[in-house]
Amino acid sequence: MTAALPSLTLALLCLLWAGAQVPVQPDLDTEKFAGVWHVTAIASNCSIFLKMKDGMKSSMAIISFMPEGDLAMKLVWPLMDKCQKFELLFQQSGQAGHYMGAQEKRDLRVMETDYSYYAILHEAHPSEGEPSAALQLLTREQDVSPQLLQKFMELIPTMGLTKDMLAILPKSGE
Length: 174
Known about the structure:
- The chain is an alpha+beta fold.
- It has a single domain, classed as Lipocalin (Beta Barrel).
- It is built from four helices and nine strands; from the N terminus they run H-H-E-H-E-E-E-E-E-E-E-H-E.
- It has helices spanning 4-20, 30-33, 47-52, 146-155; strands at residues 35-44, 59-65, 71-78, 83-92, 98-101, 107-113, 118-125, 132-139, 166-168.
- An eight-stranded antiparallel barrel has the order 1-2-3-4-5-6-7-8.
- The radius of gyration is 16 Å and the shape is globular.
């Protein structure tokens, strides 16, 4: 047990350092950011995501903000026979664009957005079993330009992820 303690401490320090290195959109304008987004690409080291990524389609995320500044996200994922719906609530961390999961330990950061076409989100889930991270490309339309996709792909290794963890999600008619 004592031999594992230095490794665990080092792993936690790496997670804290990685989280500190994730940039946040300066002065995020929540009114402009709120609304409907399409999840068009994801890179993640989550084992569940990696097993499912080849069968996934573009999903919708509806983002709204509570009066106290918390971020509410409704996700609709098209599956084979139905749509799966999730509702997530993230509490404001004190820094605009940085939110913490209300139900479970999740760290969500709006890294970059132009509000009208794209947003890049970083989510970390430092669970005890298997810490995971995800980089998501959101667009207002289901189409994504090759230039934006290239920019997103260049960010992947800077967040400690690899290109084999990437899923470019095909359009969904659902």
